[in-house]
Amino acid sequence: MSKKKLIYSIERQKARWGWIFVAPSLIFFSLFSFYPIFTAFYTSLFKKKLLSLKPPDFIALGNYLYLLKSPDFWNSMRATIVFTLGTFIPILVFSLILAIFISSRKRFQNFLQLAYYSPAVLSSVVAAVIWLLIFDPRGLGNQWLNFLFRSPGVDHKWLANSIMVQLSTMLVYFWKYVGYFTIIFIVGLASIPQSIYEAAKIDGGNDWKNFWYITLPLLKPTTILVSIISMLQCLRTFSTQYLFTQGGAPLAPINVITLNIYHTAIRDHQIGRASAMSIILFIIMMLFTWIQFKTSRADEISY
Amino acid sequence: MKKISIILFLIMLLSLTTVVANSMEITFWTHEDPNRTEIEERYIAEFEQENPGVTIKRVTSGSGQIQELVLTAFAANQGPDIFNMSIEDEYAYIVNERLSPVDYAACGYPSLQAIYDAYLPGVLDPVTYQGKLYGLPLELTNWCIYINKKIFREVGLDPEKDYPKTWEEMMEVSDKLAIREGEILKRRGFDFRYPYYLVSWIPMVEQLGGKLISDDGKTAIVNEDAWIKVLDYMKEWGPNGRNLGSPTYTNARKLFNMDNNDIAMCLSGLYQQGRIKADNPEFYESGEWMIVPFPIFENAVQDVPCAYYGHYYMVNGQKPVENQQMAWKFIAYMLSHPEEYLTKVNLIQPTKKLIESDTYRSIPYSDVFRDDMAKGHIVYYGANSAKIQSLIKEAIETVMLTDTSSSDALQTLKRKVQEVLEED
Predict the structure, then answer these.
(1) Is residue B7 domain-resident?
(2) Is the ipTM of this complex over 0.85?
(3) Which residues of chain B make contact with A49, given a CB cutoff of 8 A?
(4) Which positions in chain A touch B394 (Cβ < 8 Å)?
(5) I need a labelling partner for B345 at 20 to 30 A (CA). Which of A140, A187, B101, B362 fits?
(6) Is the pTM here over 0.80, yes or no?
């Protein structure tokens, strides 16, 4: 047997095992991700009522054209963009700051990691319910702020003002996820070799210069990863806005796309239109994922 | 030996098949109500004993969740055999032909007309579609004002004389009863049932001559002046006006039972009495609460009290015929105890016999509810009533909680409701 043939056969064997290991997740994804995506796209081409037993009418891109002309849809796009920008930028900045703070501690590192990470373990619904109690006019939110600013009796209208309700949803998300992304940054920081800092120290670098010229550039892939993941998380936000509107908050300021999809499907029974909206959201998310792949490949770092 | 084994196996298989064939499980989804659970669990046990092989599986969910649970189950063709919701949510199931018509024979009636004859006139109209009857009422409810007399007396008001008869008085009395710490309300005088606008808010518009949908069913929002006046009233009620209440505060009806100085008045049905009794028997027995009619505006053009709504038991038309018949038989069995539903759960099943009974008359303040109901009408229902209700919610809460003017909110509401009508 020639050497080439032997290598080829070993590679084929390895590849076969590779396929065997990958197959369960491929089947899982095909069943629970790809199939619903194709079904949603197919449904989006029909005028279909959720409860109707009659065959739906094929309207091609009719649902998409309706959405592009709908003020409600554009309000949802606005609400989603405002929420995403208002949440992922603070998450990115503060999780980096917290990660550097925790990594620089000699004691209580594990405790701090656990403390910041714990809200991420809570379900979004539980988190929103806790914050609903805090944002009650007689709740802790008003009490804390009034104690801090020495302004007794002021109602900060956490849920009863269009600007404040948007800030409140951002605050809940920030609280819930800042710890999660801090952990990712801590892992990124740990992967930077100490020898680089030692070399910089010999060359006379201080902590500030080290941060700007070593830490931040070498952390770029992690930063991009965190920014894209947090952005995708923010685009998919639902439970906080849903529970806040159930708790009496005005809908329009926080009517993000996912909430609009829910209302269109469950309240209005317009499953075709809701599917079209979810396909648009999917395209937006795919676009960001593509950007992530492009940028992260360009920034691969090896030590 | 081999032959004997095969015969034994076949006998076992046959007996197993017979057992399976004779057994039937009826799934029954309903909203949480501890008082009702107690009696219905007993009815289930009794019914199962009378009908060997039949199992009734009763599943409860929160009153805010059941609509989406039933909807998603039906969308996947996996709906329960029996369910109940408010008629605004149920009507879409009727027009989409997802239900089984009432089987009068299984219910023990000699004819369909006999069912209509047993109930008060008109109460079965919402569940009658194209000549068929699709539901039987678990309850027919309207709301009046519950008052905590102690709080009235505390601020120097006589509850028997000074209770609010008009919406203008409601604002003044609530202002007197409210306790504030700066802008924060520590005690509210009264507050609305915020999500249920079709039941309790549309009648306020109607008092001033407005209408949700024109008589020909083609135009949304009739008499804009009336709508704007009531939206202005809500704006004044809210945190940007006289700060008397808001949808962001805890539900007034739930707080009322506790009698812990949080709320002086709330809007609720006769069933609230059963819940006060269960939550706070001491308050119930104290006699420190009373019920008064739904107020009207001073310059009202018509006396419209709170609308009444029905929860109807319905049967899934996609289940096998035997299941449908058994489901109707079980519903009829439950509904054959209207007096127990009234005395234990304070639910009114609107049969002529019950309304004329001494039991009904002996329930405290039943006359207040009866008189208001006689003047009122059933809540607006249609295939899209749930959507219209949430559009009204959006308009009212926008007016109360943001700087949007009543006329701007009304124009948005009108555009959206008109679109709903035209889509139908």
Answers:
(1) no
(2) no
(3) 96
(4) 250-252
(5) B101
(6) yes
